[in-house]
Amino acid sequence: MGMFVISKRQNGDYKFVFTSRKGKTIFTSIGLKKKQDCKTMINGLAGHIHQFSFRKKSTPSGKHYFRLIKDGFVLATSRKYSTPLMLSKGIDEILKYLPEAETLDFSENDDIFKDDNKLVEQPNSL
């Protein structure tokens, strides 16, 4: 199953990513001023994904990606894929798993991994 993850950018805008069931980012939304806008867009995607279009594009270096579009507005951009087949598989994964995806909100957890740099004291062993 895929997952939406809401977070806050350094400029204060909110964004969300849709990740695969393996945890790899599939696409990232545009920046939004309010967290509620993220939630509204996620609900719209989950309930009506077939109303959105996927515009496939390529970079000059030969990588492939798509833009998620509704009514002419770009709402999200995918990660880069090495082949058109991998791009198509990414889109298929969205269509299959997005309607059942859960949402995690990490937008208020600025220091979620704060203690990772501290050494854990080990008990003395004999």
Automatic annotation (TrEMBL):
Gene3D superfamilies: 2.30.29.80. SUPFAM superfamilies: YegP-like. Coiled coil: none annotated. InterPro entries: DUF1508 (IPR010879), YegP-like_sf (IPR036913). Residues 61-105 form the DUF1508 domain. Transmembrane segments: none annotated. This is DUF1508 domain-containing protein. It comes from Galbibacter marinus.
